Hints:
Elements: E1 7-12, H1 15-25, E2 29-33, E3 37-42, E4 45-51, E5 66-70, H2 76-85, E6 90-91, E7 103-107, E8 113-117, H3 121-131, E9 138-139, E10 148-149
Parallel strand pairs: 1-4, 5-8
Antiparallel strand pairs: 2-3, 3-4, 6-7, 7-8, 9-10
Protein name: Metallothiol transferase FosB
EC number: 2.5.1.-
GO molecular function, one term: transferase activity, transferring alkyl or aryl (other than methyl) groups
Amino acid sequence: MIQSINHVTYSVSDIKTSITFYKDILKANILVESDKTAYFTVGDLWLALNEEKDIPRNEIQYSYTHTAFSIEESEFDEWYQWLKDNNVNILEGRNRDIRDKQSIYFTDPDGHKLELHTGTLQDRLNYYKEEKPHMKFYEQDDEDEGDNVSK
């Protein structure tokens, strides 16, 4: 049985630039670095960077694929201003209902989409149950079987 995410790795074009971004802008705790690799912790998440200079990177801007980090609702404005003050590329977010909480979408130096989000999975599920009757929800039991549809 899969227990959780073990780590997230991003391919980066310049390890030094990316180390600065994750350490100084996202305030990640750096654990080790070399001329091609760096490891951080962000909360309980192990985040790895690996430098790969000669790969295409343009297509990433068209994808909704992203990593979201949790922040407190009370810190939302402070984080937004911090990113803005540090000239981070802040993306236009999607329109959202207040029950879906708040998010800031932005990119790292290589265009990986990141999000700071004030909501939880339960917030999202509760909102969707109220507003999206076309969706099929599954009940989770203690065994985490996950194949029972809610009624």
